[in-house]
Amino acid sequence: MHIPQGASQTIDILPFADALALSGRSGGYDSQKWLYVPDFYTEYRYILGTRGQNPLICIGVNPSTAAPDDLDNTLKSVSRIAEGNGFDSWIMFNVYAQRATRPEDMDRELNQVLHRANMAAFEYILQNVAKGLRPAVWAAWGTIIEKRPYLPGCVRDMVALGRRYDARWLCAGKRSAKGHPHHPLYLRKDEKTVEFDVEQYLEGLQ
């Protein structure tokens, strides 16, 4: 379990560019295989994934305790779905970067500093998909998106960034009654991703 020490506004946030520059230095994992930013365990996480040219970029709500070579069941499912859909790698990203095993423990108010750093991380991911490929972004936040009123706005910022890079949005599994895309946990290991009209989804997102 990870319960935040307090609101993220009370801690120093390492900007994404600084965290990226330091990644791979802490040791303890193969930095040629893993992309982990920041590369040490802290109250937030921007990126966790494997390196490749054509990643499946999975978007959850917020990161939990997973780390390189220590994946939780959600990340194990993400890895299987990526492989089963022909991607050479996967990246776990999140709408909000604060670590909290229970979404109820997330910040009550949006931390703009953390959000801006998280959006810089998302743009980095989109920029580094191999030339000629459209970034494949898997919406996988489930109904947890309703836990905080600021989360839909974060999604809108991500979608706007995705437009710049001609990202294609996907989902997998049955959507909720309100249209929320399925969370990765409990998906069949052979589940196929399908096109997701994220613009239409946003129209109905409060």
Task: Characterise this structure.
There is one protein chain. The chain contains 5 helices and 7 strands. The protein has helices at 16-22, 73-84, 112-127, 151-164, 198-203; strands at residues 34-37, 47-50, 55-60, 89-94, 136-139, 168-172, 193-195.
Please give the order of strands in the largest beta sheet. 1-2-4-3-5-6-7
Largest sheet: 7 strands, mixed
What is the helix fraction of residues, given as a range?
Answer: 25-40%
List segments where confidence is low: pLDDT < 50 over at least 5 consecutive residues. Answer: none
- What percent strand? 15-25%
Mean pLDDT metric: 96
| Structural shape | globular
Rg estimate, integer Å: 16 Å
* Alpha-beta content class: alpha/beta
Give a count of the beta strands, DSSP E runs of length 2 or more.
7
Spatial separation of the terminal alpha carbons: 30 Å
The sequence of SSEs as H and E is HEEEHEHEHEEH
Helix count equals 5
Briefly summarize what is shown.
By secondary structure, the chain is an alpha/beta fold.
Key terms:
206 residues; alpha/beta; 5 helices; 16% strand; globular
Produce the secondary structure layout.
Layout: H1 16-22, E1 34-37, E2 47-50, E3 55-60, H2 73-84, E4 89-94, H3 112-127, E5 136-139, H4 151-164, E6 168-172, E7 193-195, H5 198-203
Parallel strand pairs: 3-4, 3-5, 5-6
Antiparallel strand pairs: 1-2, 2-4, 6-7
Helix pairs in contact: 3-4
